[in-house]
Amino acid sequence: MSSSKKFGGKKPKVGPRHELKSRFGGRGSPLNGTGRAGSKDKARKPNRFVKWWQGSPRWRRVLVILGAVGVGFGIWFGAQWYFAPQPTYSLSAIVYPLGSGTVNPNHGDYSGGTQIALRATPSANYQFGSWSGDAAGTSPEVMLEMDSDKSVVANFRITEYNLAIQVSPAEAGQVSPGGGKYSSGSLVTLTATASAGYEFVSWSGDAAGTSPEATVKMDSDKSVVANFRIAEYALTAQVSPAEAGQISPGEGKYSSGSSVTLTATASAGYEFVSWSGDAAGTSPEVTVKMDSDKSVVAHFVPVRQRIAYNMESGISGSVVVYTNELEGGDIVEGFAELAGKFYAQDWTFRWTLEIFGPEGRKMYSWYRGHWVERNRREFAFRAPYRGSYKIRVTHNSLHDKYLVIEIEPKGWTLKSP
Q: What pTM was computed for the model?
């Protein structure tokens, strides 16, 4: 069949419009193979993007292509980052000094960006000081971000406790060493020293005892008080010889700085002579200042003068004479005693005691006494006036005799044998 018959005896017109339609599957398009549109193969309209693309200038099309390529690359790199494996970093934590505490956690591997909470715990007698290395601060807890390998140091120090010291009363003394900070577990030896006029009594608070030295163990904050009081000093008083007298007030304790007036009183037959030791002078009253322990001695002597003389034997007699200057009205009293070994041939021998006044007048006389039967003689008289008085003793034994005279007032001296 001819082509003219196929189209109803007419030859189809072909122009630019028909060519465009056939290019995009329109009527007469070879896409349906018939040249006409059937019921199932309708003519397709041009795509808007295609129209826009064909109608766009070249520079715009270049920009679109570049944008599409950029988005593609962005998606590709993002996917690489998102699905790539996360990096891991190591943690190392140590303590200084060794044994002073612990850190938790102290090591491990962690994903990048992980937040780690570190906690430092001190050992006994230590306390946390600070972090160093890849951590900082003075709090025992710190946060650490694992964005690289990390190394940290937890620094501890020996715990220090405060020692407070008081003195009561404040002016009474001092304590050394003074108060302050001391390492945990250390032993502090305190020494209390009293000021002048005071004495240490005891410790109180976190120390005890009556010794001026005390040791305090610093295992916590401590507070001690050194207690003082006005010092008391001992006064010791003696009498020499012991039976010769007494001292009042007697021995005892007296406050520091006080003045004690002592009075020496002689016993019968004695008289006070002087003080010695921590007192001096010849007055029976003396004042002692109690600024330390004191010791005094009151010296007494017999009121009567004691004369002892060895009278040699002599068939023609043995004589001894003592003299003294007396005031008118002086009372003279005493005794004379002649002693020695008894011999039979001395029964007939005698001894005499005589006292003479200044003008030679005999004031007292005793004689004819056999020395074996009556060897002691007491005497007493009143001196009528001032002058030199004399005592004369004689015996006619064939053997030596021992003469003892006790007399008052004193002052008798040997004149001649």
A: 0.49
